[in-house]
Design brief:
Elements lengths: L2 E6 L4 H11 L5 E8 L3 H10 L4 E4 L9 E3 L3 H9 L3 E4 L7 H9 L3 E4 L2 H18 L3 E3 L2 H13 L4 E8 L9 H5 L3 H4 L9 H9 L1 H13 L7 E5 L5 E7 L4 E5 L5 H9 L30 H11 L3 H17 L7 H10 L9 H20 L1
Parallel strand pairs: 1-2, 1-5, 2-3, 3-4, 5-6, 6-7, 8-9
Antiparallel strand pairs: 8-10, 10-11
Helix pairs in contact: 3-4, 4-5, 5-10, 10-12, 12-13, 13-14, 13-15, 14-15
Bound molecules: magnesium ion (MG).
Magnesium ion binds next to helix 6.
Length: 372
């Protein structure tokens, strides 16, 4: 029986990699829904390739008659799609409501949208349990940890170690970081991704979000989630057991691996895109520099404080990165803006309302700092 699959963010980097996985396993999947933020023409072409799929364009732009329009149309389309599994590859906080819509529709959730976890994982987890469907991480580090915990159990795990490429400015001094341009920030050494996440990788905000993600997803205390710089992006993450033994997942850096693992979960199937060769392989590890990359300790602080702090961190960062793209903020202004926002009070219970309120408030405070 084919799995009925919905892909959200189908024209983005996760969506395109997922479609590669589907094309290599045509007998295993039936695409029932494809959504995109922009790229009506690309979505239209996918509609021709997968004629059974409903199509939703969430952003602006002209589109043909087969495509449903608007962000509000997506939850309904998810509800009607009857997917067995929904891959959420939407970028940013906009991914949260579609995640909840998928779970409400009793679809398994393959989650590449880290904001769903960072902002609201307690709500997401409760809904998934109520509906009896799994949430499977697709972020490469968390997908690795998910597999490692499946293999080794959780009880004896002392810490989770997330690997980070370190981004293109790993060797930059503070003075050099100050002058980083948008163009330089978009040039990532090992992973090819969307523009926002590429900048997040350069500031290490991406790893900061992933640290919060790991804390929430795996129910780990923040001081037991560590980050190590590993420029080759071959080791996707590690766990350290009570007895000191480390276990890691390694492969070529290719998002099709975690996507494929999630879409086929709980089954394992041979990876058709080539194996990692060990001879000649060099693996480097170093500690992250928190002074040059303050987005990492700021995330650890947000994770420790809990409540709505992770939400404030995320929204402030999204605003700051947008201002950086528009030339209204420098590269080092990004952590300064987030610091400014985190200094406000973000205590509070998690609910959809409080998250929406904190998201908006954080953006307004960030905007006042950017403007001022
Ligand atoms: Mg990642």
């Amino acid at each position: 029986m084919k799995k009925r699959l919905a892909i959200l963010g189908a024209t983005g980097s996760i969506g395109r990699a997922a479609l590669d996985v589907v094309r290599a396993g045509q007998e295993d999947f039936e695409i029932v829904l494809l959504s995109a933020h922009t790229g009506a023409a690309a979505l239209e072409r996918l509609g021709t390739e997968f004629p059974g799929a409903a199509l939703v364009l969430c952003g602006e732009g002209p589109a043909g008659p087969r495509i449903r329009r608007g962000r509000e149309a997506l939850p309904d389309a998810i509800g009607e799609a009857g997917a067995d599994i929904t891959l959420n590859g939407i970028a940013g906080a906009a991914g949260l409501l579609p995640s909840l819509a998928a779970l409400r529709a009793r679809s398994a959730l393959a989650l590449a949208n880290k904001e769903t976890v960072v902002l609201a994982y307690p709500l997401v987890k409760a809904l998934a349990e109520e509906q009896g469907v799994p949430v499977i991480p697709v972020d490469s580090e968390h997908a690795a940890v998910f597999r490692l915990l499946e293999a080794h159990g959780r009880d004896r795990v002392r810490e989770i170690i997330l690997t980070a490429s370190g981004g293109p400015f790993r060797r930059h001094s503070l003075r050099q970081l100050e002058k980083v341009t948008v163009r330089e920030a978009l040039d990532h050494p090992t992973w090819s991704m969307g523009p926002k996440i590429t900048v997040d990788s350069a500031t290490m905000a991406n790893k900061g979000l992933e640290l919060i993600e790991a804390v929430r997803l795996f129910g780990m205390e923040p001081d037991r989630v560590k980050v190590v710089i590993h420029p080759q992006s071959v080791v996707h993450s590690l766990i350290r057991m009570d007895d000191g033994a480390l276990y890691a997942q390694l492969s070529r850096p290719d998002m099709r691996l975690p996507i494929r693992e999630a879409l086929y979960w709980p089954e394992l199937s041979p990876f058709p895109f080539g194996d990692l060769d060990l001879p000649g392989l060099h693996l480097d590890f170093e500690a992250p520099d928190e002074e040059r990359f303050p987005m990492l300790p700021l995330a650890a602080e947000a994770a420790r404080r809990g409540g709505l702090y992770p939400c404030a961190y995320n929204a402030a960062n999204e605003e700051a990165v947008e201002a950086f793209f528009q030339g209204r903020a420098g590269f080092l202004d990004i952590p300064a803006i987030v610091r400014y926002v985190l200094d406000r009070d973000w205590e509070g219970e998690l609910s959809l309302e409080s998250i929406t309120e904190a998201d908006g408030r954080s953006r307004r405070i960030a905007a006042s700092r950017i403007g001022g």
